[in-house]
Each structure stands twice: as C-alpha cells, then as structure tokens.
C-alpha cells in the first residue's frame, strides 16, 4: 500500500500562489491515477484535480485555469501549482493515488489511497 506525504501548504495571501508536492513511497507509474482532493471545515472532501499516467488532466470547475496538476514519475512525485488563490481555496489538501481507471478516467473518489494532508489557508 503506497504511502503518500504532502508538503508545501501554509498561509497565503489572497491572489497569491503556492505549490504543493506529494512524494510516494512506491513507483508512481504503478498508479494510473493520481489526484488532489481537499476538505474545508464543515464540508465534504472534494476532488480538485486528477492526472493519469499519460499526463491527461482534469480539474474541478472551481479551480480550472488557476491550478495545474503535474507528476514526475522519475521522482515519484505529484505536484499542484495553485495561482490566484481565493479564501474559498482554504482547506486541507490531500494527495491520492489509485492503480486503476474507471471508464477510462480518474474521476471519482473510490479506490484512492490518501496522504495525511497539508493545510492551505488563504486570507
């Protein structure tokens, strides 16, 4: 079972940028899907971005055009570049990995293994 460790969170000003990283304990190419989820206080966890082993990406509409997900399989690392941050982006951000696709895609939350999360606070 893969271990995922996130880093890069912290306090950011409105309109600012941050870059999250996630290092996996196993070869990330073993995981077809990698993703970022987030959970704000009092809200359910939601998907932010996904990337498959070929580099195809998908974003939540709330972050489209502001966030960029990427993966470096040689370094077993997943990234999330966040720009033009808004207060509503404040949440615990979780890295996740799944070995299979569903209907050819990485959407949904079933089957993902999660890291422990890193807090991002925008104010």
Write the layout of secondary structure elements.
Blueprint (H helix, E strand, L loop, with lengths): L3 E4 L2 E3 L5 E7 L8 E7 L6 E7 L4 E3 L7 E6 L4 E6 L8 E8 L14 E2 L3 E5 L1
Describe it:
The chain has 123 residues and is an all-beta fold. It is built from no helices and 11 strands. The chain has strands at 4-7, 10-12, 18-24, 33-39, 46-52, 57-59, 67-72, 77-82, 91-98, 113-114, 118-122. The strands form 2 sheets. Strands 2, 4, 5, 6, 9, 10 and 11 form a 7-stranded mixed sheet that branches. A 4-stranded antiparallel sheet has the order 1-3-8-7, with no helix packed on it. The model has no long low-confidence stretch (mean pLDDT 94).
Using brief descriptors, characterize the structure shown.
single chain; 123 residues; mainly beta; 4-stranded antiparallel β-sheet; 11 strands; globular
Q: Based on helices, strands and strand pairing, what is the structural class?
A: mainly beta
Helix count, per DSSP? 0
By DSSP, the count of extended strands is 11
Query: H/E series, N to C?
Result: EEEEEEEEEEE
Cα Rg = 13 Å
Mean of pLDDT: 94
**Low-confidence stretches at least 5 residues in length (pLDDT < 50)?**
none
- Strand proportion, as a percent range, falls in over 45%
- Helical residues, percent: under 10%
Largest sheet: 7 strands, mixed
End-to-end distance, in Å?
A: 36 Å
Mass-distribution shape? globular
In short:
The chain has strands spanning 4-7, 10-12, 18-24, 33-39, 46-52, 57-59, 67-72, 77-82, 91-98, 113-114, 118-122. It has 123 residues and is mainly β. Strands 2, 4, 5, 6, 9, 10 and 11 form a 7-stranded mixed beta sheet that branches.
């Amino acid at each position: 079972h893969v271990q995922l460790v996130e880093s890069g969170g912290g306090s950011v000003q409105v309109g600012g940028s941050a870059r999250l990283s996630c290092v996996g304990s196993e070869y990330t190419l073993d995981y077809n899907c990698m993703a970022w989820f987030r959970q704000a206080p009092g809200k359910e966890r939601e998907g932010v971005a996904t990337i498959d082993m070929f580099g195809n990406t998908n974003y939540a509409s709330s972050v489209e055009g502001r966030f960029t997900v990427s993966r470096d399989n040689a370094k077993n690392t997943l990234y999330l570049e966040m720009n033009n941050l808004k207060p509503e982006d404040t949440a615990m951000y979780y890295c996740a990995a799944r070995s299979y696709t569903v209907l050819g895609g990485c959407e949904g939350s079933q089957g993902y293994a999660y890291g422990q999360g890193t807090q991002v606070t925008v104010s």
